[in-house]
Amino acid sequence: MSMLETTRTIRTLDEGLTRRERVVLAELTEDVTLEEIATRLFVTRNTVKSQVRSVYRKIGVSTRAEAVAWAEAHGIR
C-alpha cells in the first residue's frame, strides 16, 4: 500500500467511524458475544447491535468475519 493509500485509509477511518464504533469493532475481533461487549462497554445489547450495524454499513461488510478481517487489515485491534 502506498503512502497516499495509507493516508486515505486513515482519513476514511477517522472520518467514517466514530470513536465508539472503533471500540466496538475492536471488541468484535475478540471471541466474545454481543452481550459480553455490551457489559464491557456499560450499554445494552441493542445499543451494541445498532453500533455493529452502523460499522458494517460504513466499512462495506455484512458479516462479523468480514468486519474482523477489515479491522485487522486496517490495524484495529
Brief digest:
With 77 residues, the protein is mostly helical. It has helices spanning 3-16, 19-28, 34-41, 45-59, 64-73. GO terms for molecular function: DNA binding.
Describe the protein's architecture and organization.
The chain is mostly helical and 77 residues long. The chain has one domain (3-73): Winged helix-like DNA-binding domain superfamily/Winged helix DNA-binding domain (Arc Repressor Mutant, subunit A, Orthogonal Bundle). The protein has five helices and no strands. It has helices at residues 3-16, 19-28, 34-41, 45-59, 64-73. α2 (19-28) packs across α4 (45-59) and α3 (34-41) packs across α4. It is globular. The mean pLDDT is 88. One of its GO terms (molecular function) is DNA binding. One of its GO terms (biological process) is regulation of DNA-templated transcription. Residues 10-75 form the HTH luxR-type domain. This is HTH luxR-type domain-containing protein. Keywords: DNA-binding, Transcription, Transcription regulation.
H/E order of the elements?
HHHHH
Strand portion: under 5%
Which CATH top level class fits?
Answer: Mainly Alpha
Q: Helix count, per DSSP?
A: 5
What's the mean pLDDT score? Answer: 88
> What assembly state would you assign to the polypeptide chains in this entry?
single chain
Parts with pLDDT < 50 across at least 5 consecutive residues? none
CATH 4th-level superfamily = Winged helix-like DNA-binding domain superfamily/Winged helix DNA-binding domain
- Number of separate strands: 0
The biggest sheet amounts to: none
Radius of gyration, CA atoms, in whole angstroms? 13 Å
- Class inferred from helices and paired strands: mainly alpha
What share of residues is helical?
Answer: over 70%
What is the 3D shape?
globular
At the fold tier of CATH, the topology name is Arc Repressor Mutant, subunit A
Number of self-contained structural domains:
1
Give the N-terminus to C-terminus distance in angstroms: 19 Å
What is the CATH architecture descriptor? Answer: Orthogonal Bundle
